[in-house]
Amino acid sequence: MEQIKTDEAFRSAIASGRLTVAVFKTTWCPDCHFIDPFMPEVEQKYAEQLRLIEIDRDDLPDLCSELNILGIPSFIAFKNGQEVVRFVSKLRKSREEIEQFLERALQVSDALNS
Asked: What are the residue numbers of the active site?
């Protein structure tokens, strides 16, 4: 997953007409580390349909405050610079739940194109 380190890089990444899913994490979060082993496979599975980027919440606190990122990991799908849908919960996220969210994000994105 591409690591985004600046606000400018984030805004550039989400400006695309391609669906971009931002994954907000931190280095100290156990639930963030839980998803690390399977996320490369998830990214590969969806590589043709969307782009995944990763943001460390501690690196960009102002951006995360603006986006109301409270729990981590959080997933937000963007298209053309606009939020499409988000997946935030206080519970640990499974691979199945993440893939369900990505499918939902694709459906919403497709509906916006219609």
From this structure: 29, 32
Number of H helices, E strands in the chain: 5, 5
CA-based R_g, the chain, Å: 13
Instruction: Tell me if 85 sits within 8 A of 77, measured CB to CB.
Output: yes
Helix (H) or strand (E) holding 64: helix 61-66
Per-residue pLDDT for 53 more than 80?
A: yes
pTM of the model: 0.94
DSSP class of residue 23 equals E
Residue with structure tokens 């994954």?
23
Tokens of 101: 């969210």
> Is 17 in a helix, a strand, or coil?
coil
The C-alpha atoms of residue 72 and residue 23 are separated, in whole angstroms, by: 9
